[in-house]
Design brief:
Layout: E1 4-11, H1 13-17, H2 25-34, E2 42-48, H3 59-69, E3 73-78, H4 81-84, H5 88-101, E4 104-107, H6 117-151, E5 164-171, E6 174-181, H7 185-195, H8 202-211, H9 226-234, H10 243-251, E7 267-273, E8 279-287, H11 292-304, H12 313-316, E9 323-325, E10 332-338, E11 345-351, H13 369-394, H14 399-422, H15 427-457, H16 464-471, H17 478-488, E12 489-495, E13 499-504
Parallel strand pairs: 1-2, 1-3, 3-4, 9-12
Antiparallel strand pairs: 5-6, 7-8, 10-11, 12-13
Coiled coil: 401-464
Pfam families: Recombinase, Resolvase
Protein name: DNA-invertase hin
């Protein structure tokens, strides 16, 4: 099977901001193309605006690694090794993986031979410098952020604060961003007013906004839930901090940067974290949204609320973590109910999506967990049986693949014969031979692509390790059943209307 050359290009956000033409995507691609052999097949993998810190958040890099694993790539071209990765440990792990696939990595601007120990030493030294540069820049940014946070009450950027938007202003002769109320500020005020009532829960707040048609989400893609409101109700950002708030923070052991006189009953507080993990509180230039009496009442209520214990759902159903609502696609939790005389208990699925601002209206599913477990178990069993059959079929001669391979050999033989005649041919015959050879090359490429597609489609999956535990299913613990299911299944969608839908990962 003919392998291609991969061209991998990457540009970070900082390179884009600096308008660094030498590391532009087009420049990297053009330089890599110059190193290709005439007529060589290649594929471009591009991650624009992606950091070199790690490979996890680079989709085209992940696609390239998958293609390398499938045997489609012979070598990879990069302009510089740091385009590949700036993390030394990660780079070595990836290149070791590529070595096991038989794929080499070639840098255009660092042309030393990594097959020798000297070449590998030079490559590793350059990568160490690249990683050192990245960490130094990150450290300088963090130090500057920490200094500005201590000295001023400006918004330092990065973290989003619900209910506010940043606005450029001049305070005490210095320019910076100050938080000003956004269109969601009333949501914050209302949440505090509702929650200070002893009978109001976080769920009550969520349902209040939903039932009154109030959009609490910051963006169309976001979806506020109880945890968001819980964090919002704990934040000192929103309090109009006065002397009582100062005393409360002191009693809780907070490090406070400003003197008590700065707590004027108007401005809110920033809660910052140093690089060593310690925290401190600083008066901001923004005005708080909630009076101190309401804020302190909410803090007192939250401190006395006992944490709801975990129902141990993962220990009582092997589907927990895999089961999701078929409508909103949020996770389903396992809950329990007793009858009136508390003589009988039954399980049911509780939809976490019901606790989202845009979640499901129906909180509880009627579909019984026992029935779902039975359906999923039999589907897993059938899946493994089919995989075992498919593996045995894989070893049988595939007539279509064999015909394709035979046709490729026939084409290569015809091309070889035509090329032998080319030396003695006149101009007319030479032109005919060239046209025929080009046509045969195109046909060969088409057949090779078809063969690669078939190889991918019928890629073997070894189901043997799954057969034995499935045969002992009844004796497995809940944790063992969950682990086995997780190796086979991505997600199980459940709804009362459409039943059970299983998305297998194998």
């Amino acid at each position: 099977m003919k392998k291609i050359t991969a061209i991998y290009v990457r540009r970070s956000v900082s390179d884009k901001d600096k308008d660094n033409n030498s590391l532009s995507i087009d420049s990297q691609i053009a330089d890599c193309k110059k190193s290709l052999n005439a007529g060589e097949d290649y594929c471009i993998y591009c991650d624009d605006g992606k950091s070199g810190k790690d490979i996890e958040h680079r989709p085209d890099f992940q696609r390239m690694m998958a293609d390398a694993k499938d045997g489609l790539i012979g070598r990879i071209f990069v302009k510089k090794y740091d385009r590949f990765s700036r993390n030394m440990r990660e780079y070595l792990n990836v290149t070791d993986t590529l070595d096991s696939y038989g794929v080499s990595v070639v840098s255009l601007t660092e042309p030393f031979n990594t097959a020798t120990k000297e070449g590998r030493m030079m490559r590793n030294t350059l990568l160490n410098f690249a990683e050192f540069e990245r960490e130094t820049i990150a450290g300088r940014v963090a130090d500057a952020y920490s200094t500005r946070s201590l000295e001023t009450g400006f918004y330092q950027g990065g973290k989003f604060y619900y209910g506010y938007i940043p606005e450029r202003r001049t305070v005490n002769g210095k320019n910076g961003s100050v938080l000003v109320p956004s269109d969601k500020a009333d949501v914050v005020r209302t949440a505090y007013q509702l929650y200070k009532d002893p009978e109001t829960s976080l769920t009550d707040i969520l349902f209040y906004f939903r039932n009154n048609g109030i959009d609490v989400n910051r963006t169309p893609k976001s979806n506020m839930d109880r945890s968001h409101f819980s964090r919002l109700l704990e934040s000192p950002l929103y309090v109009r901090a006065d002397k009582d708030v100062y005393q409360y923070l002191i009693s809780k052991g907070f490090e406070i940067i400003d003197d008590i006189d700065a707590f004027d009953g108007i401005h809110g507080l920033f809660r910052h974290k140093r690089r060593d993990g310690t925290e401190y509180v600083k008066i901001g230039y923004h005005e708080g949204l909630v009076d101190s009496k309401t804020w302190l009442a909410v803090q007192d209520k939250k401190s006395h609320n006992s944490q709801i214990p975990n129902n141990g759902g993962a220990k009582n159903s092997w589907l927990v973590g895999l089961a999701k609502c078929g409508h909103c696609h949020y996770a389903l939790a396992l809950s329990y109910r007793w009858n009136a005389s508390r003589t009988k208990q039954w399980r049911y699925f509780d939809d976490h999506g019901a606790y989202k601002a845009n979640g499901c209206i129906k909180k509880r599913l009627q579909t019984r967990p026992d029935d779902v477990e039975d359906i999923v178990f039999h589907a897993m069993k059938e899946r493994i049986e089919n995989l075992v059959i498919a593996k045995s079929e894989c070893h049988k001669p595939d007539s279509e693949s064999e015909n394709i391979k035979a046709e490729i050999i026939r084409i290569e033989d015809e091309i070889r014969k035509l090329m032998e005649k080319l030396a003695d041919a006149d101009n007319v015959l030479s032109e005919y031979i060239r046209q025929r050879v080009n046509m045969l090359h195109d046909k060969k490429s088409e057949l090779e692509t078809k063969l690669q597609a078939k190889a991918r489609k019928y890629k073997e999956i070894d189901a043997a390790p799954l057969v034995d535990p499935m045969s002992r299913w009844a004796s497995l613990t809940v944790e063992e059943k969950h682990a086995l299911a997780a190796t086979m299944i991505d997600v199980v969608y459940i709804s009362d209307e459409n039943g059970v839908e299983i998305n297998f990962s194998i």
